[in-house]
Amino acid sequence: MTLRRIGELLELGLNLAGVRMVLVLEADNRRLEAELRSANATRDTARPRSG
């Protein structure tokens, strides 16, 4: 996937520095989304259910 993504970004006109920046930001975004899912799952299991 990474080589394909690099090709896509190069076709969009980014230079190699721009490609690197986008890949780093996308990786950071995936990490943060995983942290958020984990935090939400922890919160949801710790919260008593009303009903």
UniProtKB/TrEMBL annotation:
One GO MF term: DNA binding
Keywords: DNA-binding
Name of the protein in question: DNA-binding transcriptional MerR regulator
Lineage: Bacteria, Bacillati, Actinomycetota, Actinomycetes, Micrococcales
